[in-house]
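User:
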Amino acid sequence: MAKKDLWYLFLQIIPVMVGVYLGFWLSERGEQKHLNEKVNKLETLLISEIESNKDEVTKKLSYHETLIDSLRYIMSADTKDERYKRFNNYTLRGLQPPSLKDAAYHSAIQTGLVTNFELEEVALLNEINTEQESLEKYADAVLSALLTNGTFERAGFEKMIGGMLLNLNDITAYENRLLRYYNSALEEVN
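Assistant: Predicted structure:
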């Protein structure tokens, strides 16, 4: 009788165990599907953010290159009076640093979903974010210095233009690096 009872008990336990394991498997599968959906949505947001930032940097880079050329033209005049005259005839529309987005990147970090990306992708996203933050800090410092030390008066405008040219060269270098990072990131995803 003991052998028969054990066999009966064994036959009762097997369906319960299969049911429990099947339940765990289905639950895990559902969670994985939900996680994959979140990761795919985040990837779409990151791509959109990178494309938007790429467009913004491309526009600002073009403006900055034109501004550099214009300021060089102003400074190429033979006399200070001619340089000042060219400067006064030029409509300066400001430095216009790019306004870059980083919400999707920070969402990826804060939610921990970034751990589902390849290591190379995470490294590239971090490089992009670091470069964007550096550009923003640099642009803020340049604007602050320009507002503090810049003058449109005859006595100091050449020094201001010289400083702007140096700073614009740095800003365009940041923008060119960002464009390379953006292109690498978009190639990595496609």
